[in-house]
Write a structure and sequence with these properties.
single chain, alpha/beta, Rossmann fold, 3 domains, six-stranded parallel β-sheet, 23 helices, 16% strand, binds adenosine-5'-diphosphate, binds ligand TZD, binds magnesium ion
Length: 581
């Protein structure tokens, strides 16, 4: 079937296609319309031709940011986000994002061009030589390589199905340079493409599992629902809301599940989190893992040993019992599982005892009141709470806007302070607590939804992807970045313990003007020192839709080391090096 460029006369008359076009046609056939990447050998023409064929191709300044964009596009749309990179170094830059997507259960496909197999396998030193497939394999859900043009359709189909079916994740697709210029008959090429039918089939839970779960829940005295980002991803918003409201059970939303029901919902126990984790007796996990973010489901945060029974809804059977015994595992997709719960509950399902609800309400009201006065503080320089009070109001007035958030104090405090009102509006550092997702997430959120984006960034966090302000300006995206500028990581007040001239390891140039970075590319830059100014600047940016960076001066003394997770931060107890023996 393959022919070379030196076709015979008869072949020249037939219509031909090539590897480039087959990749593009295969993606388009499967409803993939956006590509995030960085051009170069051997994929420059792939990006160009994709744009010519009507795809939107977003070129970034670094592959990791393009990869993060693809990953969050996958989370937001339930279709795999596609990242396109060059070989070896470009591939490695994208791989961090692919691994992060897999860790977070986001569907994504990293497509990288690669060097010639014959040379790579003999390690003869090709241009950007690397055995990319082997390196990608342990870091993603699946990895495939296509060597022949007629297999492109199947290769893309396998990548799509692997990314979105079951537990979603990252898939690597290796496309060697030679593949792109392979030529084949256009009609045979078209026939070789595969439209993936039902890429993420419903997974119906077993009736016995549903019954077991509902019987356990019915007898609970202090039930709790925990919603995780799997529940946000599943787009079963109505079912989840109905289940929560019909059961009357208080719920806690994990970071990226915030807004599935509004944080202001009367059943929200977010502001009484410690109490409900400790005192609940039956906990329903919906698309949330009992990993470090939930203290592995044990320890003092969860109350006495044996005081808790878990019901877990997850599409991945191996997630069950990963940390503690799951009394009622319910394996299936969240939409199907929660629908089955609703059916099994019937019309006479008991609501939780009033004393449980009242205890939670009292604790929540107390904590909310404590917080309220801190959020109103209008000082210069601002502390985190004063600044976040202003942003909380901006988001309250614009519940459709998407919030991207990273940093340490900037992350932990914003998560607690800023209420979310709708599903999939809060995008952040996820399972790894990784810095650097900010600008990639912001670009894709704006592109995929067309909605305004507010990115609230620690000054350190912002630095990991800050060059993409040019990308934001180039595509004229409605993104407002707020840099919480406290001169450093956690705080800006550390000094070099040796007394030497080097800056301390956690501090940056004081009073940096991040706003000028945005101005450099034609966007709007503003520096603010009070919550009022912050509120005005961000409101204006959100309404104008113009790329804006607000440099928000935060008191460098205000933060705490590692934000809310200081307990995970080992610190030396040896104060001075002992003298040599
Ligand atoms: P969080 O960090 O918010 O607690 P996690 O990322 O730990 O959330 O958990 C998400 C879970 O959701 C994963 O275990 C994943 O298998 C599961 N999941 C993702 N999509 C679905 C779905 N459509 N149906 C059921 N479970 C899902
Ligand atoms: N590198 C990567 C990729 N991810 C990380 N999480 C870190 C390093 C370590 N790290 C954190 O966990 S938070 C953080 C780093 C470097 C930055 C905190 O500083 P910030 O936020 O300025 O972003 P605050 O508001 O000053 O606390
Ligand atoms: Mg900082």
């Amino acid at each position: 079937m393959e022919t070379t460029a030196a076709s015979t006369g008869a072949e020249a008359e037939r219509e031909l296609t090539d590897g480039f076009h087959l990749v593009i046609d295969a993606l388009k056939l499967n409803g993939i319309t956006n590509i995030y990447g960085v051009p170069g050998i051997p994929i420059t023409d792939l990006g160009r031709l994709a744009q010519a064929e009507g795809m939107r191709v977003f070129s970034f300044r670094h592959e990791q940011n393009a990869g993060n964009a693809a990953a969050i596009a996958g989370f937001l749309t339930k279709k795999p986000g596609v990242c396109l990179t060059v070989s070896a170094p470009g591939f490695l830059n994208g791989l961090t994002a692919l691994a992060n997507a897999t860790t977070n259960c986001f569907p994504m496909i990293l497509i990288s061009g690669s060097s010639e197999r014959e040379i790579v396998d003999l390690q003869q030193g090709d241009y950007e030589e690397m055995d990319q497939l082997a390196i990608a394999k342990p870091l993603c859900k699946a990895a495939f390589r296509v060597l022949h043009a007629q297999d492109i359709g199947i290769g893309v189909a396998r990548a799509i199905r692997a990314a979105v079916s079951g537990r979603p994740g990252g898939v690597y697709l290796d496309l060697p340079a030679k593949l792109f210029s392979q030529v084949m008959d256009a009609e045979a090429g078209a026939q070789s493409l595969v439209k993936v039918i039902d890429p993420a089939p419903a997974q119906i839970p077993a009736p016995a599992a549903v019954k077991r779960a509902m019987e356990l829940l019915k007898d609970a005295k202090r039930p709790l629902i925990i919603l995780g980002k799997g529940a946000a991803y599943a787009q079963a918003d109505d079912e989840i809301r109905t289940f929560v409201e019909k059961s009357g059970i208080p719920y806690v939303a994990m970071s990226m599940a915030k807004g599935l029901l509004p944080d202001t919902h009367p059943q929200s126990a977010g502001a009484a989190r410690s109490l409900v984790l400790k005192d609940s007796d039956v906990v329903v996990l919906i698309g949330a893992r009992l990993n470090w973010l939930l203290s592995h489901g044990k320890g003092k945060q969860w109350g006495p040993v044996g005081s808790k029974k878990f019901i877990q809804v997850d599409i991945e059977p191996r997630e069950m019992d990963s940390n503690v015994e799951i009394a009622a595992p319910v394996v299936g997709d969240i939409g199907s599982c929660v629908s089955a719960f609703l059916q099994a509950m019937g019309s006479s399902f008991p609501t939780p005892p009033a004393d449980w609800i009242d205890t939670i309400k009292a604790k929540r009201d107390e904590n909310v009141a404590k917080m309220a006065s801190r959020l109103k503080k209008n000082s210069a320089p601002m502390d985190f709470h004063g600044a976040l009070g202003a942003l909380k109001e901006v988001v309250r007035q614009r519940p459709d806007a998407i919030l991207v958030n990273e940093g340490a104090n900037t992350l932990d405090l914003a998560r607690g302070v800023i209420d979310m009102y709708k599903p999939r509006k809060r995008l952040d550092v996820g399972t790894w607590g990784v810095m650097g997702i900010g600008m990639g997430f912001a670009v894709a959120a704006a592109v995929e939804t067309g909605l305004p984006v507010l990115a609230v960034e620690g000054d350190s966090a912002f630095g990991f992807s800050g060059m993409e302000v040019e990308t934001i300006c180039r595509y004229n995206l409605p993104v407002c970045i707020v840099v919480f500028n406290n001169n450093g990581i956690y705080r800006g007040t550390d000094t070099n313990p040796s007394g030497g001239p080097d800056a301390a390891t956690t501090v940056f140039v004081p009073g940096a003007r991040y706003d000028k970075m945005m101005e450099a590319f034609g966007g709007v830059g503003v520096t603010v020192t009070t919550p009022d100014e912050l509120y005005q600047a961000v409101s204006a940016a959100m309404d104008s839709g113009k790329p804006t960076l607000v440099n928000a001066m935060i008191d460098p003394k205000a933060g705490t080391e590692s934000g809310n997770i200081g307990s995970l931060n080992p610190q030396s107890v040896v104060k001075k090096k002992p003298a040599a023996a």
